[in-house]
Amino acid sequence: MDHYSSIITSVRDRLYRLALRVVNDADEAEDVVQDVLVKSWKKRDQIVSLDNPPAWLMRMTKHQAIDRLRSARVRGVRETEAAAPDHDAQTPYRITAANDTLGHIHRLLQQLPPDQRTVLQLREVEGMEYKEIAEATNLSLSQVKTYLHRGRGKLRALLLEQRIVES
Amino acid sequence: MKHTTAKKLLDRYFLGETTLEEEQQLRAYFRSGDIHPDLALYPPLFTYWDEAAEIMAPVRIRPVHRRRPLRWLSVAAAAAALILGLNTWFGPTTVITGTGFPIAAAQAEPAPIDWSKYEVTDPEEAYKVLREALGAASASLNKGTSFAVREMVEVRQALK
Fold first, then answer.
1. Distance in angstroms (rounded) separating the CA atoms of residues B1 and B31
2. Contact criterion met (CB < 8 Å) for B61 and A16
3. Alpha-carbon distances of B67 from A94, B104, B129, rounded to whole Å
4. ipTM of the predicted structure?
5. What's the Cα-to-Cα distance from B80 to each of B105, B113, B135, B137, rounded to whole Å?
6. Which residue of B has its CA nearest to A149?
7. Which of A5, A105, A112, A119 has the greatest number of beta carbons closer than 10 A?
8. CB-based burial of residue A122 (10 Å sphere; 0-12 exposed, 13-18 middle, 19+ buried)?
9. CA angle B72, B75, B76 (to 5 degrees)
10. Is the Cβ pair A33, B57 closer than 8 Å?
11. Which among B46, B48, B122 is the top mutation candidate for probing chain A, defined by the most A β-carbons within 10 Å of its own β-carbon?
């Protein structure tokens, strides 16, 4: 397997999860990642020589996903779907949405601004360091920390509101 | 992990002050099942993140270069269509030269085409396009042969 292919293989799932977090739709997320792969293939020689190719790919995925989300909002079809994620029946997202508590968490996350939920996704799901997140999102280190703090705070508030957590 | 440690870590977690290692310890605590009653309702948050981490990309998403054979197939189909077009336009016996037929020469040397815009990604569709293009080219060439034979017969009759 060549270097480019091994990079894509190692980052493919992370790109898809990130796209899914932003656009909240399995088909759209798949399109986003495929577009990113097409663009990355055209620049493969540059990508393999980068210090951190996965960061470049994640940044590209985030931008592409946000662009697609904006287009969807222009069409007026995506906003209302935050309350009812459209995914394949067997995906963990569907299972999650079916559970009341986890469904609340999911819906709250989808209401956060894209940058904020991207930061949460990269920290909580991908286990990335602040510096790595900053590099993958084009945000400053302080923005990353602020978004993470705010995002977690909102999740805690939600849990308290839902009486899931007693203060 | 002790419950008091878990409580302190959780407070720091929500303030965004924990390290990745501490967050892993916190997750392990909530997965353990031995949770202090004060913290008993927090596990869904960590369960949610655990489930989100299990999502995998569909197998359809893959590195682009594996689609190259299809690109060649679609280029072949386009080339066959181009040959058919030239053959139809200039007739089966016309010889295209750069000097005698400036329009033909211009068409024989078209501007560079961005084939990526016409790339067919579905193998079945690409095969269908190629088959139709070759079939059409073949029919046209057969027509040219028939035309040539008919012309020869007419010439022979005229010479008699």
1. 12
2. yes
3. 31, 34, 16
4. 0.82
5. 18, 15, 10, 7
6. B16
7. A119
8. buried
9. 85
10. yes
11. B48
Q: Give the confidence band of B126 by pLDDT, cuts at 50, 70, 90.
A: confident
The answer to whether B54 contacts A5, with C-beta atoms less than 8 Å apart, is no
Quote the tokens at residue A113: 């601004």
DSSP H helical segments within chain B, as ranges?
3-14, 20-32, 43-52, 68-90, 102-108, 123-159
| Interchain pair A125, B62: CB under 8 A | no
- pLDDT beneath 50: ranges in chain A: 78-79, 83-90, 165-167
Please indicate, yes or no, if residue A14 is contained in any of the structural domains. yes
Nearest to A145 among B14, B16, B52 (CB): B16
| Out of A8, A153, A155, closest to residue B63 by CB | A8
CATH number for the domain spanning A85: value is: 1.20.140.160
* Other Cβ atoms within 10 Å of A55 Cβ, number: 19
Q: Do A165 and B15 touch (CB under 8 A)?
A: no
* A89 within 8 A of A61, measured Cβ to Cβ: no
pLDDT tens for residues A70-104?
A: 887 766 654 455 544 444 444 555 555 556 788 88
Whether A167 maps to a domain, the answer reads: no
Give me the number of domains chain A comprises: 1
Structural domain range at position A31? 3-161
* Torsion angles phi and psi, residue B41, rounded to 5: -100, 5
Q: What are the residues of chain B with a beta carbon less than 8 Å away from any beta carbon of chain A?
A: 13-16, 20, 23-24, 38, 41-42, 44-45, 47-49, 51-58, 60-65
Q: Extract the tokens encoding A124.
A: 């909580």
Domain coordinates in residue numbering, chain B: 3-52, 64-159
Residues A37, A137: contact at Cβ < 8 Å?
no
